[in-house]
What does this fold into?
Amino acid sequence: MGSLGVGVVLGFWSALFISALFFILKNILKDKRKAWIAYLSIFIFVGVFYYQFDDARLKSVYVQFEKQTTFLGKIISDPNIKEDLQEITVQDETLKNKHILVRVALYPRYLYGEKLKISGKIREPFPEGYANYLAKERIVGVMSFPEIEVVSKPQDFSLKGFLIDIKHSVSETFSELLPKKEAAFLTGITLGGTSGFSLEFKEAMKKSGTTHLVALSGYNITIIVWVIFGFFSYFLSRRLSFIFTIISIILFVGMAGAEASVVRAAIMGILVLIAREAGRMYSFRNAIVFTGLCMTILNPKILVFDVGFQLSFLAFLGILYLRPALIKLFHIKETDVGFLSWKDNLFTTISAQLGVLPILISSFGEISLSSIISNTIILPIVPVAMGVGAMIALISLGSFYGALILSWVALVLLKFKIMVIEFFALHGLFFQIEISLFSAVVYYGIFIIFIYVMQRKKSISHYA
It folds into this structure.
């Protein structure tokens, strides 16, 4: 049994022991202050059991590795187009839970919903980290350049297929109106993903700390939520605008590929709208807990193996809790955002970066101090570029030349952002560093104490 398996088993029995202990404290000693720990330990107990059940169900899928095999499969997601190949996820029709990642040449292009006859060898994913990454997508094996025959094209109407077609249509519109690099970048910040990006530009985004711009985080989704709600409000009643906005968000998530960061942001965006519609106060703390619970119930492996999920939640928690503490430390007023909101962007970026720092180090082995400056410069332009991109897509339906004129505005914005990214990728400050689990625990412990002290200081000042 691997270290993770041992940890899960130990966690299971530890949670059981803690549950029993604190229920005794609660019911016999009547110590209500410790009741919440008992409830928390029950959630840990149930969570570990659910994770083990889900993991056993996935491992029960039988696969013959390293043997020539032929099977019928259906493409269940939009193919991932890279510089020199395509990656398609295929579901074996004989066993619904068996997903295979198939690497094929760039051409011919394959489509979501196509049925294929595939002949080749299925290999076990390697190394362990990559295998775990694929496991969260329910992928149990990998095939490289097998023989493929298209059995049938997509026949029945599929909502997911329809949304993917819209995504491709928008991407093609950008490609017709803009140079290749700018078109791919605009597609990334409006629809998510790095398809069409060169390896050099991906590396530049990584070094400049701006990869999150194409991850459709809460910042991007918030812009989309209020733009859609504002659009419907011009034509419809408040109630209908609320309903159509929620439907639009769900459809957008499906079109963008339902990555962890998108789903998290979308759920929280919907909760904001529901709270506003119901006239209730919106609790970010309750919303983030509810969102995490929903996502881990659907797929418990994302909690451990999805770096995007971890980065998304920790960045949000950093902004939610650490940002107010830093503002308090430097005696900055919430209303003092600075010219073009540079102060607001600066503290937001610092808080998010500090929130995810241990995960970034453990995942990539390096940190970039220049990311704070690059994000402070770029973030004010993001909502404008996204808005222009959405307008180009809509106007192109009725007027090609209208969209062409608007694309000139987008081109200026995109070139500026790309220039900033590439400048800080070349002239940034990078550090190679490693971090242990103990160091990460100490790191977050220090920030929890810091946040508590600053909140306590605020309360004491208020009552003084």
User: Anything to note?
Assistant: The chain has three domains: 3-59, 68-152, 165-459. Residues 400-427 form the longest helix (28 residues).
